């Protein structure tokens, strides 16, 4: 079932951070929080100021720096091709 412009392709951009975090939580469990925080950010998602204030520890996986840290954790085991295949193999993300 769909409503509206459901057949028009669109870029997932920042929503991909949610899928990346879900994979990281599945793979690493609670230990992912040792690399990235779970706190709200006080600046915009692409601010470097907060990262500097926190001495390089991003406040959460949804700001750009946190997404990079989360992605890095996933890329440490396996090739980029294998990791990309893991992200796009979700049946809900495949084009029909």
Plain-language structure description:
Helix content is 41%, strand content 0%. It has four helices and no strands.
Salient structural properties:
96 residues; mainly alpha; 4 helices; 0% strand
How many strands, which pairing sense, and closed or not: the largest β-sheet? none
According to DSSP, the number of beta strands is 0
Strand coverage percent: under 5%
* Shape designation: globular
> What is the tally of helical segments?
4
Write down the secondary-structure element order. HHHH
Compute the CA-based radius of gyration: 15 Å
**What assembly state would you assign to the polypeptide chains in this entry?**
single chain
Structural class label:
mainly alpha
- End-to-end C-alpha gap: 13 Å
Uncertain stretches: none
Integer average pLDDT? 82
Instruction: Please estimate the helix content.
Output: 40-55%
Task: Itemize the secondary structure elements and their pairings.
Layout: H1 16-28, H2 49-53, H3 64-75, H4 80-88
Helix pairs in contact: 1-3
């Amino acid at each position: 079932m769909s409503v509206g412009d459901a057949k028009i392709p669109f870029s997932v951009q920042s929503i991909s951070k949610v899928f990346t975090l879900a994979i990281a939580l599945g793979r690493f469990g609670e230990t992912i929080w040792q690399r990235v925080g779970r706190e709200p950010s006080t600046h915009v998602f692409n601010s470097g100021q907060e990262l500097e204030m926190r001495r390089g520890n991003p406040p959460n996986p949804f700001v750009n720096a946190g997404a990079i840290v989360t992605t890095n954790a996933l890329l440490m085991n396996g090739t980029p091709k294998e990791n990309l295949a893991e992200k796009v193999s979700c049946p809900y993300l495949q084009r029909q």
